[in-house]
């Protein structure tokens, strides 16, 4: 019959084309398949079913794809192609080459901002968190390109505390076991309380770091801030001041992930190590730092703390985030127990298989293990030591002794700030003021080193017993301050040898007596000295400081050897040749409550209750005149006793006086009242260490600027 051509349709049949012939030879020819695009399918190798797997079904759709910053992932992409000239419901899957990885816009569409590293073969290395869209090259059938959304998770902290939380994998805020974020435990007692109470007149109010305190739930039990609970037992934050003990914890992409993931997935936080942290949702939608610097934001964070409490995270107690309502990407945390804390954010599928994991590494310490505490003694009844030692008390068990910075020659250019406390401070309070300064400089972004210098002031004044009952408390402490100057100078010599030209010195109140004496040398020891509310005569620095008349019955007409010191000819102030600092700066408050009382102390000199007197007719200072133990005090031999007990300061205190010259640079001075509203209340004398960081941050910015340590 010759060649016969027939068309066999799918599912059809064809008649015998050569009836009667015992043999029929067929030469089939198949029409090329025709396809049209029917979407894309993406999956993760060794995690999802991929085309070619026996159990793969053409009804499968792309599952949720997760990745973690810094962890590579292998993604396979396929163009799903529907056969149009054959059986219906038949598909081919054509493997795709990848093109770009771009960040997703807030509405989920692809932006033009490329991110991470993506190979043509689907190897993706994410370097920043959030939804990321991977695109393929055209599918080979049309000009279509596939898009695969990868939810990249990350756990981020502001490790270098510069205020800018860098999410990049190679950024300065990335942590590792070798380079954790070092932060302090919130084991102090920040509370609002009544202060400066006067009978029949009431009390003032302030937020301070106390020696100990309970909480409304357990008022008679010492309760550190990390364990604070309200009267109903809810975990909360005691006051605005306590927020300086909280740092930010970001989980970028968490909210978009929670919205996209299947309902049987779970998200949890786990912790490995012996540390612990307490977590609250941040009140700021952008996870900013206003909780540290804005009173309204801080108050909102505190007032809403109970409803924003996430949990206490430690090794035996993970926190389940899925199921919690209104979660955002931003949180704050405090250290609840010192130790290492490897914190993981993990996503598990419905079978509890781990599908994504990212970590941040913390090292929670007692704050006393983060700065140096130098002392020349702390008992007001003992003479100060000549050489400063590192303090060891108050450290947690197993700390290994007093903290001291490790040092190599590469640290020589690191700034070092040393602070000297004032009068009437027990040892614990010296540390509390030092810790407040350390923390508030930390939140200014200070990247250098810090130490405090403790000296043996008397403390606990006024009191009904003990040294707090001593009516000569202030003057005896002043002598201790003058005597402590030598120990401070020796320490500054050592610090300056390690950090040449990088040491900065600050002092508060009577601590400026210690600092002034230490810097009374021709050898430069510090680059900048800032005197804060200094309790010593302005005339000791400036011959032209305004005179203050002392009226009857207080006027003893003692020679003012602060202003006219005995060893200079012509006469000059005691600190006339002070050259221990390259720059001297005065932070003063003309309304300072304590320095107004300092005037009364000056007027009461010579201190007759200790046997001191002055004979103006012979220009002679005595102690126990006319008694067997009579002493004649002379300058310069008995200078420190003359200053502390005998000589009336016929001027105002340096810390209350404007435009003090001499070695001080008047162009650099700051009026603490006009600039920062320190005011005339008693609490204002130590205002920078008390109250909240929100109120006092402008002061610390100015101090950091004057010290030359702003980032």
Q: How would you explain this protein's 3D organization?
A:
By secondary structure, this protein is an alpha+beta fold. Helix content is 16%, strand content 26%. The protein has an eight-stranded mixed beta sheet with strand order 24-23-26-25-27-28-29-33, with helices on both faces. Strands 1, 3, 4, 7 and 8 form a five-stranded antiparallel beta sheet that branches. Helix 7 (511-518) links the parallel strand 27 and strand 28 (528-532). The mean pLDDT is 95.
Spell out the blueprint of helices and strands:
Elements: E1 35-44, E2 65-68, E3 73-83, E4 91-95, E5 98-104, E6 110-114, E7 117-118, E8 123-125, E9 130-136, E10 147-153, E11 156-157, E12 181-184, E13 190-198, E14 202-209, E15 247-250, H1 254-260, E16 266-272, E17 276-281, H2 290-293, H3 295-303, H4 305-308, E18 309-313, E19 319-320, E20 330-337, E21 339-348, E22 354-365, E23 372-375, E24 389-390, E25 416-420, H5 427-443, E26 449-454, H6 473-498, E27 503-508, H7 511-518, E28 528-532, E29 584-588, H8 593-603, E30 612-615, E31 620-623, E32 631-633, H9 639-646, E33 670-671, H10 672-676, H11 693-707
Parallel strand pairs: 2-10, 12-22, 23-26, 25-26, 25-27, 27-28, 28-29, 29-33
Antiparallel strand pairs: 1-3, 3-4, 3-8, 5-6, 5-9, 7-8, 9-10, 11-15, 13-14, 15-20, 16-19, 16-21, 17-18, 17-20, 21-22, 23-24, 30-31, 31-32
Helix pairs in contact: 6-7, 6-9
